[in-house]
Amino acid sequence: MSESIVERNILTIIEPAIQLDPLEILDIESGTENSDNLTQQIKPSKFSQVVPVIRVNSYDVQMDRLNFFSLKNDAFYPTCKIQFADVDGMFTARFYPKDGDLIQINIRSQGDETTFKPIRIDFTVVNCKPVGGGGGQTANEFLVTGRMYVPNLFTENVEYEEEVTSWDALLNISERLQLGYASNVEETADVMTWTNPNDTTETWIQDIVANSYLSDETFFTSYIDPYYYLTMVDVNRLFSQEGAIEASQGFSTNPSDTMGTDEGEGQTDDIPNYLSNMLQLQGGARYISKHQMVNNSGEISKANGYKKYSQYWDLNAKEWVSEFVDPLTNNTPGMIPATKGRIIDGEVEGPRNDQVKYKYLGTQGDNVHPEFQYSTVLNYQNITEINKMGMIIELDTVNPALVRYSRIYCQILEFGSPVKNTLLAPEQDEIEGEQAPTTRTGGDDENNPDSEQGIVNEYLTGFYVIKGVEWLLTKPGPIRMKLTLVRREFTPTT
Q: What are phi and psi of 441, to 5 degrees?
């Protein structure tokens, strides 16, 4: 089923109210000159879209000392990793973090900040380790890691949400944590009393989502995004290979406002929201500078089987229940599933129907919703299944329009002559026809393997789901973006 854009989009339900520690960023570009010939007098606030503003326990990490920076949003909450040089020993002597001290990070959004919020996160210091040494008594470099600081997220409590859906339970928990709340569904069909038996709030949230249920055609996950929204997502509706490519804003790698001018924001409106390694896109936020395929299918199939049975004793019906979950796919015409086992002559190979797993879940009474135990396997099996096939890509700049668990169209071109020759070769059934074509697609120049034009790799091209986002910087910068993409269907190879 093809979902509409509105049905796929994650929409804000409530705004976050959490209070972060003050982080002052100079803003002197608005009406004052900030230049002394070719040099800047004071670093402008907008510079943080190229190099992040980083403060570790009140110690400002200078741009020329920052060797590595990573901000990841690929798990339940964002994490960060920073490596910098302590050239003068000041960090060691005065600012070395203690228990409870914070890492403060600001990444200014490109373009209009009313459309795309800046990333402003406080992190708890997880560890701080020296990297190498300078020959003296102090280390010349430190590696600091952190996790997003949300008060009471790891507090153990006994609490409950009485006779509400999982969707409403998460909304109420978000409010107590002063987080925002966002979702691409408006409700779930799983009314019950959700209890927390002295687990952390984080564990309770994930347990609620693990047993959430709307229908057999939905499965859910949740996470806290970099803007402090607890997000509940029906993932299945994102995987359609059909529908139009959405439009959004486009951004250049180094827009003029970076240097403090007010002559533009380096953005263009109403650009098709797709990514490509097409050479003409270089310098923009839609250019794929690196890409590589990922295949974890064998490992996942061995661990989880191709089907998994949910088994439990129903106390109300006084009967044994054993029902399997067959992970969802879209069955798009002209495409093949990449997660269902090997396909031979158009049919799935036999072991796929025999390689099953069983999960005994105990008992189920009238204190939970009717699909409580079944939803455990439904959500887990499908969430795990989408990790089988995908692609990791890198962009040369940050594209704020790309958010986790959104759908993005990727066009992958091949430029190497051997690959182009293969892609341009006629298929066997075409040769046997009355007129054997000499090429498969494109015009004269595109069909010449020696030309500089790329050939579309139809197998890799299509809609993907963004499962993880990483903001990445290696010296000298600027910040770039790394995306983990997943997909369930592909165009058959020839």
A: -145, 165
Cβ atoms within 10 Å, residue 123: 23
Amino acid, res. 444: D
- State which amino acid sits at residue 308: K
* pTM > 0.85: yes or no: yes
Domain boundaries, the chain: 5-13+153-238, 23-148, 248-295+389-490, 297-381
- Contacts of 350 by beta carbon, 8 Å cutoff, 6+ apart: none
Q: Which residues contact 34 (CB under 8 A, 6 or more apart)?
A: 28, 40, 41, 42, 44, 260
Pick from 40, 37, 21, 155: nearest CA to 101 = 21
Of 391, 482, 474, 471, the closest CA to residue 80 belongs to: 471
For 480, the token pair is: 């770039």
Instruction: Give the CATH fold of the 23-148 domain.
Output: Thrombin, subunit H (2.40.10)
Q: Which two tokens stand for residue 389?
A: 């096939």
DSSP run (H or E) holding 418:
helix 417-424
Per-residue pLDDT of the chain in tens (494 residues, 90 and over written 9): 445 444 568 999 999 999 999 887 666 555 556 555 445 555 555 555 568 899 999 999 998 899 999 999 999 999 999 999 998 889 999 999 999 999 999 998 776 667 788 899 999 999 999 987 555 555 689 999 999 999 999 999 999 999 999 999 999 999 999 999 999 999 999 999 999 999 999 999 999 999 999 999 999 999 999 999 999 999 999 998 887 777 666 665 554 444 444 444 555 556 778 999 999 999 888 999 999 999 999 999 999 999 999 999 999 999 999 999 999 988 888 888 888 888 777 676 656 778 899 999 999 999 999 999 999 999 999 999 999 999 999 999 888 889 999 999 999 999 887 777 777 776 544 444 444 333 344 444 544 555 567 899 999 999 999 999 999 999 887 899 999 999 999 988 75
Sign of the CA dihedral 430, 433, 436, 442? negative
Task: Identify the bridge partners of residue 456 per DSSP, sorted by sequence position.
Answer: 413
